[in-house]
Amino acid sequence: MFSLTRSDGHLISTDPARLDLDLVHHWLSTDAYWALGRDRETVERAFAGSVPFGVYRPEDGRQVAVARVVTDGATFAWLCDVYVDRDARGIGLGGWLAGAVRDHLAELGVRRILLSTKDAHEVYARVGFTPLDAPERWMQLDRRPPVTQVTGKEQGDASPLTVEA
Fold first, then answer.
1. What is the DSSP pairing of strand 63-71 with strand 76-84?
2. Overall domain count for the chain
3. Calpha distance 106→15 (Å, rounded)
4. I need a labelling partner for 127 at 20 to 30 A (CA). Which of 49, 69, 82, 111 fits?
5. pTM higher than 0.70, yes or no?
6. How would you class 3 by CB atoms within 10 Å of its CB: exposed for 0-12, middle for 13-18, buried for 19 or more?
7. Contact (Cβ atoms closer than 8 angstroms) between residue 68 and residue 81
8. Is residue 15 within 8 Å of residue 56, measured between CB atoms?
9. Using CA atoms, how far apart are residues 160 and 25, in angstroms rounded to an integer?
10. Mean pLDDT, consecutive 10-residue segments, the chain of 165 residues?
11. CA–CA separation, 32 and 100 (whole Å)
């Protein structure tokens, strides 16, 4: 298991027994744009099949951030579900967490770490992440329901709505 303590006493641990999965589920399902509505069982299964990184406060050990890594532990990793509690933002925990994940995976020999973000590019860039070198090489298989555009005319309005088919 991996652990790291920051100079202010915050602790990162990969011990899955320390995770507060009820809290993690709440964060992801109610406040993370990529996981809104995700059910508790899916969160539990996702973390059970991944390497969890929890960040804990020095005062009381309460969890204040989380990330999970899907990896083979040798060549490839996907960093996902990175979330910092709203009350703990602004003190650099997200960047510290991403850097700790990067360093831990480097110790294992993992050379490629991918992630996806809508709005935190600067946080990840500060710890060495860059846009894909050759995005045209990458493909995806997305099994989520397709999103279609429907005009509001059906509802007497000309503005477009986005609905899932």
1. antiparallel
2. 1
3. 19
4. 49
5. yes
6. middle
7. yes
8. no
9. 32
10. 97 98 98 97 98 98 98 97 98 98 97 96 97 95 75 50 44
11. 21
